[in-house]
Design brief:
The protein is mostly helical. It folds into two domains: 108 residues, no CATH class; 149 residues. Helix 3 packs across helix 4, helix 5 packs antiparallel against helix 6 and helix 8 runs antiparallel to helix 9. It starts with a helix and ends in a 6-residue tail after the last strand.
């Protein structure tokens, strides 16, 4: 087992660092002179699969920078951040910090937040399903205790605040979008909800009250405190209507007592 592990590690190093490590000759038959070229075939497949995985997770980033540029960037990303898991759905988690530091994307200051949004959308797509809100559980609870309940969000939900108009950027880059594709980059800041109703991920722009309500819920606040915080940020926010709206669309999936599993 030890020898097999060493062979696997040497093959991985040779794939990641061409010319920088000793070739794992025991894995290849035939002439050693042919080994580098044969290994290059494996290396090409590795980088190709990683580039495809990155493109699947970041289709909007790819559209913004162009396919050729994205493929070159994907190769550089793979060099800086080697895959840490055999599950390619987990590959690409650090693209946000990569594009923030990448010299060739500095003229696109909004790109890191677009990448952050797309990774949250990618995670939302593969997240588990949330149970339907069970109002019957609250029937026997005195209304005086409602404020102490803790709102729980569906597993696919995430929030993101940005200086850039992320919801508009998301909308105009959808394959079925048929409207004008203009984006006013000065239209931000934006607060968005990433969630997955009906098997398709959506990105919605939120008002300050709704954002604060859901943000507080994610932070573990009680219902009473979350609603108070929402009104503090937006005095026009209607607590009853806001709560009902997010329950109805499956964003808030439970109101649990402290210490109770949602």
């Amino acid at each position: 087992m030890h020898a097999l592990l060493e062979l696997q590690r040497s093959l991985g190093a040779a794939l990641a660092q061409p010319g920088g490590v000793a070739l794992p000759a025991p894995l290849f038959r035939g002439s050693r002179d042919e080994t580098p070229a044969r290994l290059a075939v494996y290396r090409g497949n590795v980088y190709g699969n990683r580039a495809k995985a990155l493109a699947a997770a970041y289709p909007i980033v790819r559209k913004i920078v162009g396919g050729d540029f994205f493929d070159a960037m994907a190769r550089e990303y793979a060099r800086v951040y080697p895959a840490a898991s055999g599950d390619l759905n987990e590959y690409g988690a650090r693209l946000t910090e990569f594009v923030a530091a990448f010299p060739h994307t500095q003229d696109l200051p909004y790109l890191p937040d677009v990448a952050r949004m797309e990774w949250l959308a990618h995670r939302a797509y593969y997240a588990g399903d949330g149970a339907a809100f069970d109002s019957a559980r609250l029937a026997g609870l005195p209304s005086s205790r409602y404020a102490q309940l803790h709102p729980a969000l569906a597993p696919a939900c995430a929030l993101l605040a940005s200086d850039w108009p992320l919801a508009r950027i998301w909308t105009v880059h959808q394959d079925d979008f048929a409207g004008g594709i203009d984006v006013d980059l000065d239209a931000g800041p934006d607060r968005v909800l990433i969630h997955r109703p009906h098997w398709r991920v959506q990105v919605l722009a939120l008002g300050p009250g709704d954002y604060r309500l859901l943000e507080s819920a994610l932070a573990g606040a009680t219902l009473g405190r979350a609603l108070e915080a929402a009104v503090e940020d937006d005095p026009a926010f209607d607590p009853a209507a806001g709560l009902a709206r997010w329950v109805e669309v499956g964003v808030i999936v439970d109101l649990a007592e402290c210490g109770e599993d949602p």
